[in-house]
Write a structure and sequence with these properties.
Layout (H helix, E strand, L loop, with lengths): L2 E8 L3 H8 L9 H5 L2 H10 L3 E6 L14 E4 L3 E2 L14 E2 L2 H13 L5 E3 L6 H11 L9 E6 L9 H16 L6 E7 L16 H13 L1 H5 L3 H8 L7 H8 L5 E9 L7 E8 L1
Parallel strand pairs: 1-8, 2-7, 2-8, 3-6
Antiparallel strand pairs: 1-10, 3-7, 4-5, 9-10
Helix pairs in contact: 1-5, 4-6, 6-10
Length: 279
């Protein structure tokens, strides 16, 4: 059977993609951030997953205020990088895995989660930056990718508890797929940051550190964090962290922490990163 063997949590800051694309990763400002992903890229190269599920949020490229799905699962054969206003990133076209994606859609919907099924969309930095951080700059991504977009832009976003439960439903779906596949799942976004208003530039290292601890050892407590606490403690964009809970729910109840990295700042954002293996 297929199995989700590991989860990757990482921020998806757009400036990280720019630094990679422009060859600036060795600069004094960026080098400490990228140093924290070197071991992760080697770990991924050694693991050689068959499929990656990437939980991310769209930044008004595939979806607009006209259509706002809470959870949208990509079931297409491929996804082109989006032009977010300054041209598409020079990264490979993302190849999908329609067979597994449709199986997940059927299983999760019959498990009473109302997913939006998407058969055509472009993907932005929310998805491509995590791929670059973990896979480097290959001519083609080394495995198919299934995108799962979560609304954390327009109120109301899903609760942390709902995201954790969705991850558990995805794990059940993958394990019921009748092919021997080694699957990894990414939870992306965060950590604490705010892009506008009087608190623009807010970073709360205490909140971030506690969240990193909870996502590993007590995901139920992380899932119980209310929206207002994300807003108050982690800034208006800190709500992106609920997407890490989809990843965590898709893993076994007990996990092994392989790697942890936290760096401030990266374009006025706190960058967090975890690799967790199911036990």
């Amino acid at each position: 059977m297929a199995d989700i063997v590991a989860g990757i949590a990482t921020s998806h800051v757009p400036a990280i993609g720019v630094a990679i694309d422009q060859g600036r990763t060795g600069e004094t400002y960026w080098q400490p951030l990228f140093a924290g992903f070197e071991a992760s890229r080697q770990w991924m190269a050694d693991l050689k997953p068959d499929v990656a599920i990437v939980v991310y949020n769209d930044h008004a490229t595939a979806f607009s205020m006209d259509v706002i799905p809470t959870f949208a699962l990509g079931c297409a054969a491929e996804y082109k990088p989006a032009d977010e206003g300054w041209g598409a990133r020079p990264v490979p076209v993302v190849q999908g895995h329609p067979e597994l994606a449709w199986h997940i859609a059927q299983s999760v919907i019959l498990d009473e989660f109302d997913l939006t099924i998407v058969n055509r969309m472009e993907v932005d930095h929310g998805l491509t930056v995590p791929l670059s951080l973990l896979f480097g700059q290959p001519e083609a991504w080394p495995c198919p990718v299934i995108p799962l977009a979560v609304n954390v832009v327009q109120y109301p976003p899903p609760t942390g508890n709902r995201c954790l439960a969705l991850g558990r439903a995805i794990r059940r779906a993958v394990q019921s797929f009748d092919r021997d596949l080694k699957v990894v799942i990414f939870g992306t976004g965060g950590m604490s940051h705010q892009l506008q208003g009087q608190r623009a530039g807010l970073i709360n290292q205490d909140f971030d550190t506690r969240f990193l601890d909870l996502i590993v050892s007590d995901p139920a407590a992380a899932a119980a964090i209310p929206h207002v606490d994300y807003l108050r403690e982690a800034g208006s964009e800190g709500i992106e962290l609920v997407m890490w809970l989809v990843m965590r729910g898709a893993l076994s109840p007990t996990v092994r922490q392989v790697h942890r990295h936290y760096h401030v700042p990266a374009s006025n954002t706190a960058v967090g990163h975890l690799i967790l293996e199911s036990q």
